[in-house]
């Protein structure tokens, strides 16, 4: 029984005599790519409308006198496609030659070199010297398009992917092609700048190095980068992303390809969040403002926490940040509810922003509000409650796991009167300044764990770089603190915590840990965009 | 399969003593030649005397210069990529002086102690910016950090280069004379500008 008999939604067709099947009405180019058939294209993008203007994907279709662009053909039952005949290969080569007529071949200084579709197609299909005897048409180099992007008009191959992206996905048509023929060039319409909050996606989908990200420009060659799959912690949408890093430094965040969550996109804000990882970090524990060892800092915190028994525990405030991983939140909750029973639990979350939109971005800037709340099983009170409890003098000890706790000035003043303020944080701030004990914590690019988006999808973060100095994951600091307190909260790995929380937290029962994928060297990843 | 070779010894060799005396003789000959000096001596008295190196000897690196004296390197990282010892550290930046040149190395460090002197960096460079033709060895160092050559050190030995960077630009064909064939040169508007007669 063939595929199509089993599933009447499938249409069977052949490519170069090889019988294949694809859902009825699907795009021929998509179907060929899905079956691993090599085909070259520049202007087609699965997330954008089809224009069939680069003519790079021409194939022969039996019964049609002329070559047809695969990207604009629909799979029909019984269709016979030929993609490797002399005629098709010659067309491919000729189109490449046209594309390269005015191309400056800046590869040595081009940031796309190494993941450039044009380089790749040229090497795969043509690899011959130029026959053009004309001088190349000169266009603008280093054209400043907007706050984040520089354009090299000579490198642009006029595929209009970026133009279509701005119009169709970002819904702000800020790019256009002007002039005609040989002199066509990409530019912004008069009075416009390329500054929409999704503009950096154009850099990704540009098949060549025409559009460059000002932050990434000249920083590193792409073939040196390794990609670690993770999930963006910029807001509650939890877009799946790749962290690109080299020699323990992060250079960029890019969306993962072909996933149904965030399609192929990420917002500009999310992409910029990697910068916090390397700037102004807390690297050493501190006790009363002086650098200390982890053991001393933990001993100080544990000494105070352990001295409070029974009723007095109601004076312990444990604050969980909405940016913690599920594993951190689960360990913190167990500590707060089981071992320090009676302690108050609070949630520190950033207030909603006006940045939310219908494209990707959520108004909630906290990456894991849902997961942390689920792990705490409804025991969390708000930061406003915390401020009230502080001003009413109900608390004696405050233990904060977050950078996200912003207290009003009166409440901050009250901290002075507490017996202990301990903070696990990654960056300095008002709270860290006032803390008796500071424990340096990791940020999301440095940890393995899971976060749950506002939509309830739990995705896996993977550690891309090692933390600076003595910084440790939140859960690890808590486990060591528990050991000091003489408690058995013994988890050795985030995986062990995840396995435990999946059993105990109703809302996360269906969550998957996902594969442990080592970083992939981009050198072997082919072209991107 | 291993081949067994048996050495044939004649009576003379089997007598042992004459051969022994001959061996001592050779040793003594070298002893006297070396002690009382002679042109036949095969070693040199380094470091007072130095051997002449072949012209393609790979010495310490240098960076070449453009016509205006600035560094020729465009920070493409081909050399640091190919380097099997991974001992070239380049930080790239914008030249930012309004010229057509965009990318330059802000810093360019080579760890000469890690370098295995393979010359691959020179082969890989598309700009003829890095060379190993100084003919010099890296001097001995006392401290580890002295083993790094920085951009300034590398440029100190650098000189101008005969090739035009980036080729002769988009109009290179106008000065290019292909061997043996007629060529037509068109201007930017596409009009026939020049007819070159083949040899
Ligand atoms: S866009 Fe591609 S082919 Fe063009 S200069 Fe850059 S790397 Fe080279
Ligand atoms: S800039 Fe890139 S994406 Fe935009 S039209 Fe040119 S080649 Fe295509
Ligand atoms: S000579 Fe070889 S080892 Fe030394 S810097 Fe060049 S490529 Fe690296
Ligand atoms: S290969 Fe040449 S141009 Fe490229 S970085 Fe090295 S020295 Fe500079």
Structure characterization notes:
The complex is a heterodimer of chains A (529) and B (199). Chain A is an alpha/beta fold and 529 residues long. Helices cover 26% and strands 18% of the residues of chain A. At the A-B interface, loops of A face strand 2 and strand 6 of B. The structure holds iron/sulfur cluster (4 copies). One iron/sulfur cluster binds next to helix 4 of chain A. The site of one iron/sulfur cluster has 13 residues of chain A, from helix 5.
List keywords for this structure.
heterodimer, A: 529 residues, alpha/beta, Ubiquitin-like (UB roll), Alpha-Beta Plaits, Rossmann fold, 3 domains, 8-stranded mixed beta sheet, 5-stranded mixed beta sheet, 16 helices, 24 strands, elongated, B: 199 residues, alpha+beta, 3-stranded antiparallel beta sheet, two-stranded antiparallel sheet, 7 strands, 16% strand, binds iron/sulfur cluster
Report the CATH C-level class of the largest domain in chain A.
Alpha Beta
Helical segment count of chain A = 16
User: What composes the largest sheet of chain B?
Assistant: 3 strands, antiparallel
Shape assignment of chain A: elongated
Question: Nearest-angstrom radius of gyration of chain A?
Answer: 28 Å
Radius of gyration of chain B: 29 Å
Assembly context of the chains = heterodimer
Mean pLDDT of chain A, nearest integer?
92
Ligands bound, unique = iron/sulfur cluster
Q: What is the overall silhouette of chain B?
A: elongated
């Amino acid at each position: 029984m063939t595929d199509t008999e089993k599933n009447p939604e499938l249409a069977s067709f052949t490519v170069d005599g090889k019988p294949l099947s694809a859902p009825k009405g699907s795009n021929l180019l998509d179907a060929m790519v899905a079956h691993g058939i090599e085909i070259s294209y520049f202007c087609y993008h699965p997330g954008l409308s089809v224009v069939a203007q680069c003519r790079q994907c021409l194939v022969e279709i039996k019964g049609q006198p002329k070559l047809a662009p695969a990207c604009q053909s629909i799979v029909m039952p019984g269709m016979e496609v030929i993609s490797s005949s002399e005629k098709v290969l010659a067309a491919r080569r000729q189109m490449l030659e046209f594309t390269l007529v005015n191309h400056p071949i800046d590869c040595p200084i081009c940031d796309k070199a190494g993941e450039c579709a044009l380089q790749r197609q040229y090497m795969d299909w043509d690899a011959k010297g130029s026959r053009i005897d004309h001088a190349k048409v000169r266009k603008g180099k280093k054209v400043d398009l907007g706050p984040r992007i520089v354009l090299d008009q000579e490198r642009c191959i006029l595929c209009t992917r970026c133009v279509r992206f701005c119009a169709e996905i970002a819904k702000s048509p800020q790019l256009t092609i002007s002039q005609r023929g040989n002199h066509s060039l990409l530019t912004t319409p008069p009075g416009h700048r390329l500054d929409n909050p999704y503009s950096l996606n154009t850099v990704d989908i540009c098949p060549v190095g025409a559009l460059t990200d000002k932050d990434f420009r000249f920083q590193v060659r792409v073939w040196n980068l390794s990609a670690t799959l993770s999930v963006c912690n910029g807001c509650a949408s939890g877009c799946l992303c790749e962290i690109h890093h080299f020699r323990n430094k992060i250079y960029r965040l890019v969306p993962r390809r072909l996933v149904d969550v965030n399609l192929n996109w990420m917002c500009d804000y999310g992409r910029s969040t990697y910068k916090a990882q390397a700037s102004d970090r807390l690297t050493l524990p501190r006790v009363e403002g002086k650098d200390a060892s982890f053991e001393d800092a933990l001993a100080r915190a544990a000494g105070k926490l352990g001295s409070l028994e029974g009723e007095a525990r109601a004076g312990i405030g444990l604050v969980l940040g909405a940016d913690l991983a599920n594993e951190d939140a689960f360990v913190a909750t167990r500590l707060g509810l089981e071992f320090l029973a009676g302690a108050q639990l609070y949630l520190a979350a950033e207030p909603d922003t006006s940045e939310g939109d219908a494209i990707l971005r959520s108004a909630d800037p906290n990456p894991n509000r849902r997961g942390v709340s689920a792990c705490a099983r409804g025991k969390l009170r708000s930061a406003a409650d915390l401020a009230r409890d502080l001003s009413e003098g109900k608390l004696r000890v405050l233990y904060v796991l977050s950078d996200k706790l912003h207290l009003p000035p009166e409440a901050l003043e009250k901290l002075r009167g507490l017996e202990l303020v301990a903070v696990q944080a990654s960056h300095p701030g008002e709270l860290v300044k006032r803390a008796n004990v500071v424990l340096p914590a990791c940020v999301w690019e440095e940890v393995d764990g899971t976060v749950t988006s506002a939509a309830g999808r739990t995705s896996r973060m993977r550690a891309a770089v090692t933390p600076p100095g003595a910084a440790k994951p939140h859960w690890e600091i808590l486990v060591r603190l528990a050991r000091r307190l003489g408690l058995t909260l013994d988890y050795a790995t985030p995986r062990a915590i995840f396995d435990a929380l999946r059993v105990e937290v109703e809302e996360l029962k269906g969550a998957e840990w996902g594969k442990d994928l080592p970083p992939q060297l981009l050198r072997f990843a082919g072209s991107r965009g | 399969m291993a081949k067994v070779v048996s050495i044939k010894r004649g009576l003379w060799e089997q007598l042992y003593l004459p051969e022994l005396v001959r061996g001592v003789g050779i040793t003594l000959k070298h002893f006297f030649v070396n002690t009382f000096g002679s042109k036949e001596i095969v070693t040199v008295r380094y470091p007072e005397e130095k051997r002449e190196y072949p012209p393609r000897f790979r010495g310490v690196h240098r960076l070449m210069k453009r016509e205006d004296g600035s560094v020729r390197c465009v920070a493409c990282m081909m050399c640091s990529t190919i380097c099997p010892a991974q001992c070239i550290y380049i930080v790239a930046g914008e030249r930012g002086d309004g010229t057509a040149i965009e990318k330059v190395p802000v810093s360019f460090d080579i760890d000469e102690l890690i370098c295995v002197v393979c010359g691959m960096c020179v082969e890989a460079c598309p700009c003829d910016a890095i060379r190993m033709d100084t003919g010099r060895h890296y001097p001995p160092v006392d401290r580890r950090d002295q083993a790094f050559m920085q951009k300034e050190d590398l440029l100190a030995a650098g000189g101008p280069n005969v090739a035009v960077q980036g080729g002769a630009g988009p109009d290179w064909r106008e000065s290019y004379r292909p061997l043996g064939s007629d060529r037509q040169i068109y201007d930017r508007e596409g009009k026939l500008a020049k007819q070159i007669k083949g040899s």
